[in-house]
Task: structure prediction
Amino acid sequence: MSLSGPIAAIATVTLRALLGRRRTLLMLLVAGAPVLLGLIVRADGPRPRALVPALEGLIITTVLPLIALIFGTAALGSELDDGTAVHILTKPIPRWTIIVPKLLVAAALTALLVVPSTLLAGILIGGTGSHELGVTFAFCIAALAGSFVYSAIFIALSSATSRGLVIGLAYSLIWEGVLAGALPGTQLFSVREYLRGIVSVIGPHGTLTSIVGGQGILLAAVAFVVITILASLRLERFEIRGAE
Amino acid sequence: MTDLIDPPGPAGLTTGATGTAGLVPGTAGEPAPIAVAPPPIATAAPAVSAPIVLDRVSRWYGNVVAVNDISFSLGAGITGLLGPNGAGKTTILHLLAGLLRPSAGRVLIGGTPAWRNPAVYRDLGLVPEREAVHAFLTGRQFVDLAARLQGLPDPAAATARAIATVDLESAADRAVGTYSKGMRQRAKIAAALVHDPSILLLDEPFNGMDPRQRLHMMDLLRSMAAAGRTILFSSHILEEVERLADGILVIYAGRLAAAGDFREIRRLMTDRPHTFVVRSSDDRRLAAAFMVEPAVFGSELRDDRLTIRVTEFSGFTRIVARVARDAGVSLFEVAPTDDSLESVFEYLVSRR
Result:
């Protein structure tokens, strides 16, 4: 049996479920915030020195995880919670063929919003000097990679618990925001640190210093694959929620 | 209650050893020594090869036991899973559909475990009770999705066939979100049988259907059963089960309270203590007259309402007219009050 049929079918339904409704509008607003801020800053001319903190603080630590969280948990978690997923689960297909298309759709939508937002905000704030463009480009690549890793994490969380949204938010705020900065070694389990590593390697010299450095690319790739496999294994053991 | 349709065929149901129909014995550990009207598989050992097998299955959530040591195997035919809300019917269907892990025991579909085994869905269709479907899909797209996920060679043709089967053609190209409850139900059934499974599980399938749709669906399920399929549907409505099922499993509080031929279970259900409300020309005198009857063990007159408690349904109905005539009282109305399924199930379980 060809698996391309089921994968395409699930991807299509997931895409239609994620688009529409108020969610898309809300996410557009979130993605538009850095651009809006860039426009405000821009009124006084470019501020190259604000570029790195702005992109790191706005995109990598806020807008990217937030949008990935919303799309990632909605792609799978909301279907598992409201019972819609039963119609997909009761089919003779391996569980990874459910996880993968949902993950790819959530990640692609996240990237589609976050990468242009990064690009526009970067150009508005940093201007079009070659150094500044290099920094902005590095953050775009990091945002692209981050869309996939974060979406994988939030899809995996929603396959494991009906509180994926809350736990995802806690991961992003508490773990990545507070602990992973304070305790040495914990950075190895922080997506934010991987992305900083990617920026430090791709961007012009001295853009950022990161503990993981160039390994960030490898760590992000490994995290993506491992988390996707874990999510598939978890879905195999999925027990229907909201039973009697 | 009297438009009783003769069961069309053998009850597709075994619950252990052969014997006469009856109640499952009280001790939880004992295998259930009952079987029913001519079962397709009549063996003391669990018929592992039967399409549907529950072998000493329990399921608990923390400290709450939802399903308590239930064993049965089902063959071709229609079996009704009867019980009040919260009895464990949905849990049993979810266990069978591989959506819940049994805490103890084995759940087998076509001889293979249902849990963590998506291959069983090739030959199994589930119609869940929850209405949730992707509201933005049309009915046709929804059924087509099921056909594609089943990997059918010609999904469009299978979809058209399934939609015709449930009589949904006129609404097939409207968004499911605009459907009535009954239409949504039929769309779910179409999706569940698009791959022509030999086992069909339906959770409260007639909820929200109007009488005509209900009859149509019953005909459909009967013809599917006649073609050799194994169909298990849950219901909390006795009449639905009575009209459609060849065999009945009665579930109460997570236990298998009774299993077998519905006429036998029907008898057990009616020959139990009942309460009647009686209106007559002289309730007081009638109450006194009933007190001396052995079939009556209590009568109460309160707020101009005479309530009679009787030991046995049929015994009382035989004497009520005579007693009234002998007492010189005219009867206006004799109505059983205590006919809720809840009380029937409680009785069936307590009787053991």
About this structure: Chain B touches chain A through 39 residues (CB under 8 Å). The first helix of chain B runs from residue 89 to 96.
